[in-house]
C-alpha cells in the first residue's frame, strides 16, 4: 500500500497569522539546519528572527506572506514572505523573497513551487520594468539552490549572514520579474 502524499492549501497571511508564521519559521529552520549549525545558534536565531513579534513587524512594514496549510486541520507547514529588499545587489524596484520554507514532509508535494508561484505573481504585479526578485540562500543548501535555479534565479552576489551568533556564507540570487509570466 502506497502512502498518500500530504494535502495542503495556500492562503494569504496577515498580522493575525504571526504566531503560525513564527511556528513554521522556527520548525523549518530547525528542520533545515540541525546538524549544519550549532543548536544554540539555531535557538538564538529563531528566538530573534522567527518570533511572532518579528513576523508582525515584518508584515507591518511592507511585508506580504502566504501560508501553506495542511489539510485537514490547517496546521502551518510552509510559507513565503516578500519584503522590501535588504540584501546586497538590490537596486530600486527590486523585491526580496525574504523567506520561503516548507517542512521536509511536504517536500515533493508541490507546496514549495506553489508558494514560489504566489510570491512571483505578487512581486510581478505592479513591478517596474527591469525589477528583480532577490533572495539569499546558505551556500551549503544544495536542494534549495537547485529549486531556485529551476525557478529562474541566478547568482549576483555573496554575503555573510549571522544566524544566532554563527556567521554563515550565503549566495544572493536574482530573477527578473517578467510581466509576461
Task: Give an overview in words.
With 181 residues, this protein is of the alpha+beta class. It contains five helices and seven strands. It has helices spanning 18-33, 39-49, 52-60, 111-124, 142-150; strands at residues 7-13, 64-71, 76-83, 95-102, 132-138, 154-163, 166-176. Strand 2 and strand 3 (76-83) form a beta hairpin. The longest helix has 16 residues, at 18-33. The termini are far apart. The model has no long low-confidence stretch (mean pLDDT 93).
How are the secondary structure elements laid out?
Layout: E1 7-13, H1 18-33, H2 39-49, H3 52-60, E2 64-71, E3 76-83, E4 95-102, H4 111-124, E5 132-138, H5 142-150, E6 154-163, E7 166-176
Parallel strand pairs: 4-5
Antiparallel strand pairs: 1-2, 2-3, 3-4, 5-7, 6-7
Helix pairs in contact: 1-2, 1-3
Task: Give a brief rundown of this model.
The chain has helices at 18-33, 39-49, 52-60, 111-124, 142-150; strands spanning 7-13, 64-71, 76-83, 95-102, 132-138, 154-163, 166-176. The chain is an alpha+beta fold and 181 residues long.
How many beta-strand runs? 7
How much of the sequence lies in strands comes to 25-35%
Unreliable runs: none
3D shape: globular
The helix-strand sequence is EHHHEEEHEHEE
Computed over alpha carbons, the radius of gyration is 16 Å
Largest pleated sheet:
7 strands, mixed
Q: Report the total helices.
A: 5
Strand order of the largest sheet: 1-2-3-4-5-7-6
List keywords for this structure.
181 residues; alpha+beta; 5 helices
